[in-house]
What does this fold into?
Amino acid sequence: MHICIAVYIMRMITVSVAGASGYAGGELLRLLTGHPMIEIGAVTAGGNVGRRLGDVHPQLLSLADRVLAPTNPDLLAQSDLVFLALPHGESASIASSLPPDIRIVDLGADHRLEEAQKWDTYYGGHPHADSWAYGLPELSGARTLIASASRVANPGCYATAVALALAPLAQTGLIDTSDLVVVAASGTSGAGRKLSESLLASEVMGSMSAYKVGGTHQHIPEIEQSISQVSNRSVRLSFTTLLAPMPRGIISTSTARVAPGTTQENLVDCLDAAYAGERFVHLLEPGTWPQTSSVSGTNAVLLQVALDPHSGRAIIVSALDNLGKGAAGQALQNANLMLGLDEAMGLQIDGIAP
It folds into this structure.
């Protein structure tokens, strides 16, 4: 293990991005251009094959003349690590065609769920693939698994926001995991880049709307699975999602019944201890609440917690960039761990304002 890491550190690491024409793929390329130990290999796509990257992602000036290639496993295999930023259900076949010594981070859902039945219920259309190491480094025990893995499943954006809010409280028994209620809002980029009438500016601007209501959102089993694994408790989640009139960002409000005798101080101390020393997850000062504008373009997550004594519930608000910590930023964080590098390399903590 130490020999392999030494080899990587002595030379530049070549990574490829499959699905480079999407929002997550473009954000990943933006981050990779600033990484001191990485050089970008193949950039591939589906419907945009043959187009200049600058025509698809005008913001990527340094990569503008790169041409999007077909998503060919032989081409991807020329890299040390491959990012799969593909639609759900399309990663497994590509991953199975790559040599076992090629490290892979899958930004799709193909390898997140352990139970085939839940995959069939919430995704379907494609066979259930094997589950990989779950790439949420700040969860208890996750870093060791990620660092030793050659295959990592990058979490979903909503799943990241909710798990980081609730997992420490569930693990310590401060909340009842059988009655978790979450309402979360995402920017339009969370739906991907495929043209849709419901995502047109005329439909979205000045309006908010609910979608995938009534227990149908695909991140429900992933959230339940991650919290259950950390807490060793059964988890039941009610999850409602909203589309917000902004291009990027997620703000999530998670609530749960607290254990008898639980105080505000208990909740704060739990989250503070869980994320002490973490560079990307921050519990805000009392009275300050997360906002999406503070994390835009970053890999940061902001948290705040309050005890509602009237309902006997904990309320945890989390905010992150769905393209950052919710997708590309977290994928790079995982890749850094897999390659034996500083996990924060190439990633931003500070946001942009206004």
